[in-house]
C-alpha cells in the first residue's frame, strides 16, 4: 500500500477539487461532468501506470479498469439525470458491478456470505418497493440484485476465521460495502425522502469505494507474483 500511495496523489487532488468547487447540480454542464469524473480518470491512469502487460496478464485488473470506464460514463449520465438520463447512468453502473463481480471471482463460494447479502439486498428492495413505480420497479430490483451479488463476491474473499484473507481482498470488500452505501443513499434520496447531506455521503463513499477497488487490483499483482516465486 505504501508503494502505491504516491501514485494515488492525483486521485486525492482531483477528489479535493470536486469537493472544493462543489458545483451546483442544478446547472449540469460538461465542465461539471469533467470535474465529477476526474477522480475516476485518475484511477484509470493509476492502473495504466502499472503497464499494459500487467493489465493484459491479470484479468481481474483489466476488468476493474473496464468497470472504472463504465463508472465514468455513469457519472456523466447522472449529471443530466433530471433531463432523463438517470436510467442510462443506472445501466452503466449495472455493467460496472458485473465487471467487478467477475474480477472478484467465484472462489471461495461462501454460501453464508451469499445468504447474508441476499437478505440485506432483499430488505433494501422491500423498503424501496412501495416508493417505486413504472419501469423503476423492475430496474431497481435488477440493479440491487447485481450490486448485492458484487458485494457477496467481495465479502466471500475475506476469510477471517481461516486466516486466508489478504489486504487485497479486504480492500475489495470494504470498497464494495461503501459502494452499496453510496447507491442506497442515492435510491433513498431519489425515490423515498430527502437524505441530509446526501450528496456528500454519496460522493465521499463512492470515491473511497472506487479507490479501494482499484487498489485491490494492483495488490492482486503482488500476490500472484509472490505465488509464482514460491
TrEMBL record:
Pfam families: YhhN. It comes from the Eukaryota. This is lysoplasmalogenase. One of its GO terms (cellular component) is membrane. Its main location: membrane. Keywords: Membrane, Transmembrane, Transmembrane helix. InterPro entries: TMEM86B-like. The gene is Tmem86a. The lineage of its organism: Eukaryota, Metazoa, Chordata, Craniata, Vertebrata. It catalyses: a 1-O-(1Z-alkenyl)-sn-glycero-3-phosphoethanolamine + H2O = a 2,3-saturated aldehyde + sn-glycero-3-phosphoethanolamine; a 1-O-(1Z-alkenyl)-sn-glycero-3-phosphocholine + H2O = a 2,3-saturated aldehyde + sn-glycerol 3-phosphocholine. It is a multi-pass membrane protein. It is an enzyme of class 3 (hydrolase). Its EC number is 3.3.2.2. Belongs to the TMEM86 family. It is found in: Membrane. GO terms for molecular function: alkenylglycerophosphocholine hydrolase activity. The chain crosses the membrane at residues 30-49, 61-80, 86-106, 113-132, 138-155, 167-188, 200-218.
Amino acid at each position: 500500500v505504501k508503494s502505491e500511495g504516491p501514485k494515488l496523489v492525483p486521485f486525492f487532488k482531483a477528489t479535493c477539487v470536486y469537493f472544493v468547487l462543489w458545483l451546483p447540480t442544478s446547472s449540469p454542464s460538461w465542465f461539471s461532468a469533467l470535474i465529477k469524473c476526474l477522480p475516476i480518470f485518475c484511477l484509470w491512469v493509476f492502473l495504466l501506470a502499472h503497464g499494459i502487460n500487467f493489465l493484459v496478464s491479470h484479468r481481474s485488473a483489466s476488468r476493474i479498469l473496464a468497470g472504472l470506464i463504465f463508472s465514468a460514463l455513469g457519472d456523466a449520465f447522472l449529471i443530466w439525470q433530471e433531463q432523463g438520463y438517470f436510467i442510462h447512468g443506472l445501466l452503466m453502473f449495472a455493467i460496472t458491478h458485473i465487471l467487478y463481480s467477475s474480477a472478484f471471482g467465484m472462489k471461495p463460494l461462501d454460501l453464508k456470505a451469499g445468504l447474508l447479502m441476499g437478505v440485506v439486498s432483499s430488505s433494501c428492495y422491500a423498503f424501496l418497493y412501495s416508493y417505486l413505480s413504472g419501469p423503476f420497479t423492475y430496474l431497481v430490483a435488477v440493479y440491487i440484485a447485481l450490486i448485492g451479488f458484487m458485494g457477496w463476491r467481495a465479502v466471500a474473499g475475506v476469510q477471517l476465521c481461516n486466516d486466508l484473507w489478504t489486504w487485497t481482498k479486504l480492500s475489495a470488500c470494504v470498497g464494495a460495502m461503501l459502494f452499496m452505501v453510496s447507491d442506497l443513499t442515492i435510491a433513498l434520496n431519489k425515490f423515498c425522502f430527502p437524505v441530509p447531506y446526501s450528496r456528500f455521503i454519496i460522493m465521499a463513499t463512492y470515491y473511497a469505494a472506487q479507490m479501494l477497488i482499484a487498489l485491490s487490483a494492483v495488490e492482486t499483482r503482488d500476490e500472484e507474483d509472490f505465488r509464482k516465486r514460491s
